[in-house]
Amino acid sequence: MKTARFLGWIAFHLDFIGRFIEARDCDSDAILLWRSLVAENPDSYTPDLARQLRSLGVRLSNLNRHEESLGATEESITLHQSLVEKNSASYTPDLALQLGSLGIRLSNLNRHEESLGATEDSITLYRSLVEKNPASHTPDLALQLGSLGIRLSNLNRHEEIGMRNRWVPLKNPSPYTDH
Fold first, then answer.
1. What ranges do the domains of the chain cover?
2. Tens of pLDDT along 5-43?
3. What number does CATH give the domain 1-86?
4. How far apart are CA 4 and CA 72, in angstroms?
5. 88-179 has which fold?
6. 57 near 31, Cβ under 8 Å?
């Protein structure tokens, strides 16, 4: 477990300094270790595997390996969905984030209708999270609403952008406004 975490940490820092191939390789090695740990104890290590797959998806996208990136992202989503079934409160934010990433991965492959659907799914989850905790999740919802505009634009559905790009009114907007 410590080695897998360390490899993930190294991958993050390699990516930060632009060494994307080495970062991808560290992620891949970490995933192999997480898979073996999941085989022994899925309840303890599935969240770690899902997060590492998310990282690998980003790394592969940075390397313009979009099909592979999509595969890692989809596997991460499958794992996050199983985690949400067991503990919705803990894992719904991760699933919402991954669905937003799926929208990006699909857009990179010019699969714009599917990309729109993934982004809309992410927005649906973020809206439910904002209702429960606006301070934590409103920025994420805003980001996905911006992505929605991009997805609609990619489909030449410009007239819908203003109509559909609305967010949940804030109960306490003061943290998000200038004083």
1. 1-86, 88-179
2. 999 999 999 999 999 999 999 999 999 999 999 999 999
3. 1.25.40.10
4. 17
5. 1.25.40
6. no
